[in-house]
TrEMBL record:
The keyword Membrane does not apply. The keyword tRNA-binding does not apply. Keywords: Transport. Coiled coil: none annotated. InterPro entries: BSH_CzcB-like, MFP_Cation_Efflux, RND_pump_MFP. Residues 76-220 form the CzcB-like barrel-sandwich hybrid domain. Belongs to the membrane fusion protein (MFP) (TC 8.A.1) family. This is Efflux RND transporter periplasmic adaptor subunit. It comes from the Bacteria. The lineage of its organism: Bacteria, Pseudomonadati, Bacteroidota, Chitinophagia, Chitinophagales. Gene3D superfamilies: 2.40.30.170, 2.40.420.20, 2.40.50.100, Helix hairpin bin.
Amino acid sequence: MKQVFIISTMALLLSSCGGEKKEEAKEPDIKVNGNTVTLTDAQLQNTGIQTAKLSTQSLSSVLKVSGKVDVPPQNMVSVSVPLGGYLKSTKLLPGTHVVKGEVLAVIEDQQYIQIQQDYLTAKSQFAYNESEYNRQRELNQSKATSDKVFEQTKAAYQSQNVLMKALEEKLKLIGINPAKITANTISRSINIYSPIAGYVSAVNVNIGKYVTPSDVLFELVNPTDIHLALTVFEKDIDKLFIGQKLLAYTNTQPEKKHPSEILLINKDLSAERSTMVHCHFEQYDKTLLPGMFMNADIEVKNNNVKALPEESVVRFANKQYVFIAKSKHQFEMVEIQAGVTEKGFTEIIIDPKHENESFVTKGAYTLLMKMKNTAEE
């Protein structure tokens, strides 16, 4: 009886071990051949793979460029003194705000005295010549004087008039009103007035220095029309157009965006195969100063590109791939170039011979993991 019990127990244990072996039966191995992976029906069902053809999508990309804040020539003024002289006084510092017509500096020189003296002398002589001319004209009409005397008087009158007008213009050039000059108001100094409203960007002189007409005393900037000058390379120029919107930002405050619009695209290329694109700020910001470096994001539209859902593209060893369905169970991993990604789609740049294939749109990463794990075993 004892032997029967032992035999029954051993049979039960053997039966139990046989059941465990059935439960531990392994799933058939995934077949990998180079960049091709083959799945069984069960594996295909578990991965949930879906496929689709390339579709045409209208996607936009962002072109990142850099440049600096610039001022158009009509808004930047270099202030000089027309006839030279010594700088007597100025209170300007870089950054000082000035209004149009404000006195920027006082220049003095003895030549200013001489010009005023010459003008008053010429004016007095002109008054005499004019009176003499009128008198000789009346005498000539009555034949009381010769034509020669009259012509000489007329020539002297006209010459003096030219001299006086020339001196008047010289006075206006140095900022002196000829109508207000008298013997008692002759001055050795002149005022330099601001031709625009804005701020001082540079002061190039100091008190007591002698300046010539070619010297730039101050540089003024009218900030109301500052713009952004961007450097764009040749390959990207055809993506831009007048009126195109962009967002500009500085390196110190990248989160603060400055909406802008393309105003002008230069037609000349530099030696580096780039050109300047001028943009207008929609709203002037006083913190933006000429010469400040800025970056810009320009939205560029690419119409009718071939694309797949974003999850179709997998990355491995710093390269990008998609899986092509060679059959129901077989999939080939093919390298591609991924372009613009927007609205859940990615532009696919692939060998034209594959453009009409079916691509894995769901489960691509699962395929990649199974393929690489199998290859490592």
